Amino acid sequence: MSLVVVGSVAFDSVKTPFGAVDEVLGGSATYFSTAASYFTDVSLVAVIGTDFPEKHLTFLKSRKIDIDGLERVQGRTFRWKGEYGYELNEAKTLDTQLNVFQTFRPKLPESYRDRKVVFLANIDPDLQREVLEQVKQPELVACDTMNFWIAGKRESLIRTLKLVDILLINDGEARELSGEPNLVKAARAILSYGPGTLIIKRGEYGALMFREGRIFAAPAYPLEAVFDPTGAGDCFAGGFMGYLANTMNFEESNIRKAIIFGSVMASFNVEAFSLDKIKSLDYGEIRGRYEEFRKLTHFEDLTS
Ligand code: AMP
What we know:
- This protein is globular.
- By secondary structure, it is α/β, with parallel strands linked by helices.
- The chain has a single domain (3-167, 228-296), classed as UDP-N-acetylmuramoyl-L-alanine:D-glutamate ligase (3-Layer(aba) Sandwich).
- α9 (252-269) crosses α10.
- It contains ten helices and 13 strands.
- It starts with a strand and ends in a 7-residue tail after the last helix.
- It has helices spanning 28-36, 54-62, 125-133, 147-152, 154-161, 171-178, 183-191, 232-247, 252-269, 283-297, and strands at residues 2-6, 10-16, 19-26, 41-48, 65-72, 78-83, 92-97, 117-120, 140-144, 166-170, 197-201, 207-211, 214-218.
- Strands 5-4-1-8-9-10-11-12-13 form a nine-stranded mixed β-sheet, with helices on both faces.
- Adenosine monophosphate is lined by residues 8, 10, 12, 26-28, 80, 96, 122-123, 146, 148, 230-234.
- Adenosine monophosphate (AMP) is lined by residues 8, 10, 12, 26-28, 80, 96, 122-123, 146, 148, 230-234.
């Protein structure tokens, strides 16, 4: 099965304690699509400006990502500038330039409208709903967001949340969205806004899933070298949704496997700047790291 994603395609300028890059390929939908493309066909909905180079389009096409829904308009591509301290868990946004996203009205190509799995990556919640309205009968809808929209477009975001099955956000965002510092209480409040499943990403501390009164915890892969956490959340979502779209099984046991695939893709992504690591993985490496996650978390029950 294939999935459709709306989100940002961007030029990112990023500084971490280990280096800096200027105007490299980024954006929530770019990271998501690349990670998901190892599992399923991906149809991308986004907008770019006249300054977007052909080589990035060639790359997306090389990952077999359908870019019929990637519109090019007069103007400048979205830009984001961020910085991380030694505590790599939270980006400090230095600058956000919406540029061509300011006037973007997504129009899905006819071929995208019968997709069954939809991911609303981090983007204006108004645009998230506009895309969703054009998909005929989705079976699974998930979404992401960030503090920029929680603070700036809260009402619209709450309207989007009523329409989604799964919300993926990080711990800081969960606290800000719910106004509740304790994550278990924050999760309960957020689930009452609409999504049946909530996944809270906690950077190097892994991820927590809240669903029907149950909690599942996945660790992050213990890496020796982390260069750039930008896009980790989107790659997590890409691995997670890509696996679910591939299997079309939304039972909890399969959602748990999908969380591990999400963690695998995020762990690869943070090993290099931009998409440098995840642009050319092979499925064997992905499966190998999935197995390592299994060993990492295995323990016997008390009777064995
Ligand atoms: P992540 O590190 O997974 O949370 O996402 C990082 C990506 O989000 C970067 O590549 C940015 O281009 C993109 N991004 C940052 N701010 C925004 C925003 N306000 N709307 C959409 N995308 C954004």
